[in-house]
Amino acid sequence: MLDEIYSECESHMQSSIEHMTHEFKSLRTGKVLVSILDTVMVEYYGTPTPLAQVATILATDATTITVSPWEKNILSDIESAIARANIGVNPNNDGEQIKLFFPPMTVEQRQESVKKMKTMGENAKVSIRNDRKKSNDKIKALEKDKEITQDESKAAQERIQKITDNYIAKLEDILKEKEQSIMTV
Q: What is the pLDDT of residues 123-178, one digit of tens each?
């Protein structure tokens, strides 16, 4: 019973961290990553389709991404989808492929990316704390229903706190590492 609560809590906390690291893909760092286009959806035969499923996406150097559609007739659809995605650059269509030229990041842009990253980190921390509260509430309900003793309840809540501390520490390490990668020129 308590083991279920512990594992469910850990699972939710791990999901919070995974969600945060997935959100990081939308952040711009020193070199361009093709993952910045992960959220771009292209209208493909009337169906919104992820860009990666209709084109080859390559980072040709530290500041350029090349998008080569598998079907040339959707080139303009891809161009407009990228423009709508508002990723900070305008797509350049040469009739065969689309090139995205990202200027080198200024210090202010790097600081702005770090700010966004920290906001994402705070949201993940709030989510982890909410998971802790939910788990503690379940433990208190078990104690109230006399399914566990007061001592077991206290020990279980302490274990939930240790799990929480562990995930917050993991999150902090990820944030420090990401901040370092963003601020490195």
A: 999 999 999 999 999 999 999 999 999 999 999 999 999 999 999 999 999 999 98
Per DSSP (E only), the strands in the chain are 41-44, 47-50, 55-61, 64-69, 92-93, 98-101
Domain count for the chain, please give it.
2
Q: Which of 101, 125, 148 is the last residue of a domain?
A: 101
Checking if the pLDDT of 114 tops 70, the result is yes
Residue 16: CATH number of its domain: 1.10.132.20
Measure the CA–CA gap between 134 and 129, rounded to whole angstroms: 9
Please calculate the CA angle 145-148-153 and round it to the nearest 5 degrees: 105
Question: Which of 24, 44, 36 shows the shortest CA–CA distance to 117?
Answer: 24
- As given in the structure block, the two tokens for residue 159 are 């274990």
Output the pLDDT for position 185. 64
Give the residue numbers spanning the domain of 177.
2-25+106-183
